[in-house]
Amino acid sequence: MPAYDLEVAQTVSGCPTASSAVQDDLGWALGVLLRSYLRATDRVLADVPGGARGYRLLSAVVRDCPGSQLALAQAVGLDRTVVTYLLDDLAAAGLLERQADPADRRTRRVVATPAGRARLAESDDRLRRVEQHLLGDLGAEESETLRRLLQRVAVRLHGQTGESLTCTGIEALAGS
Amino acid sequence: MPAYDLEVAQTVSGCPTASSAVQDDLGWALGVLLRSYLRATDRVLADVPGGARGYRLLSAVVRDCPGSQLALAQAVGLDRTVVTYLLDDLAAAGLLERQADPADRRTRRVVATPAGRARLAESDDRLRRVEQHLLGDLGAEESETLRRLLQRVAVRLHGQTGESLTCTGIEALAGS
DNA sequence: TATTGTTATACTCTATAACTATA
DNA sequence: TATAGTTATAGAGTATAACAATA
User: Which of A38, B10, B100, B146 is at 20 to 30 A from A48, Cα to Cα?
Assistant: First the structure.
């Protein structure tokens, strides 16, 4: 994925010419798309403490059933110490609570509050709009084709890396 | 881009069910792809000092004609102080040189060495292979379709964000 | 006085390892 | 002794600002 000049074979004052056009390069397209994606999701999740990782955690709490923090950390693919920090912030914002577990007093059961569920629903909504916006002016059919192909590629890559399917796509944001 | 259960309407012990399947979600696919992309490029560029940003810089030096460090920084979208550090490492590795500019003794003209050009060529080669590997088992026709659609989307997004076309796709790595 | 490049300072993340309270 | 959660420490990375040398 080299850097590119605007034109294919532009020659500038004796310098070597660019070998590829922007239009032909997958890496460039992927880069632009992913960059836009990261920027947009970052902006959209600004009101969730911890940003993308906070969202991911909140999402897991709401959807994957509350469990211990350790189980939560593993499901989301974060270190347990990081989870502590993130939960602190999410709890301070009133989006979830740590409840005592009567069975094992070492563990804390993490439960989302109504406010947390509401915030999550809003975030989900915005994220869906972001996705639609990213695809932009593609027609319905093309859009569907792109989604399908990306899905195929992603499913295969996912199988290779052996990640937990419970994790969300935004997980990449953390660079974990 | 919510987190997902494996099944669409799996209900676990009274918890709310997951609302979407993995297969349908663009965000998830983009996340997986992005993660794989970053991992692969990171690995492939490990022998370039500064990693992806070092590569980007080296690439700009070789292809966009050597200029002042400031011009270089702007072309690549990095802070000039970071460029200083990166150039230090690239120069120490013998991939480029800082030459005095007879016209303006404040500026340094950055020029790639033969070793630098060779290293860049290798990196470009590997990056292309990475791209092909990412698309993996898509057929030739599908692969072409995906590239074309991504290209369309990317060109449009690119126009919206007003980035310099000289920048490479890997720029996303820096999270700039 | 403005500009190029460098160096220094501070701040944010992250990762590792200690610590506590239970079991 | 082992585990869940927390807190403390250290390191990398980044950003901001001060600095030296030219113009």
Answer: B10
Q: Where are the alpha helices (DSSP H) in B7-113?
A: 26-44, 51-63, 69-76, 80-92
CA distances (Å), origin B146, targets A30, A145, B128: 11, 8, 16
- Of residues A23, A63, A157, nearest to B151 (C-beta): A23
pTM, entire model: 0.75
Residues 47-106 of B near strand C (Cβ < 7 Å)?
Answer: 68-71, 80-81, 83-85, 87-88, 98, 106
**pLDDT-above-90 percentage for chain A:** 49
Percent of chain B whose pLDDT exceeds 90: 45
Give yes or no for A145 touching B (CB within 8 A).
yes
Diameter over CA atoms, chain A? 76
Size of interface A-B (CB pairs under 8 A): 252
Helix B114-135 × helix B26-44 angle, to 10°? 150
Number of H helices, E strands in chain A: 6, 2
- Is A62 an 8 Å CB contact of chain B? yes
Task: Report whether pLDDT(B173) > 70.
Answer: no
Q: Which residue of A has its CA nearest to B12?
A: A65
Over 60: is that where the pLDDT of B157 sits? yes
Q: What percent of chain B has pLDDT over 70?
A: 76
Residue B129 Cβ under 7 A from any strand C atom: no
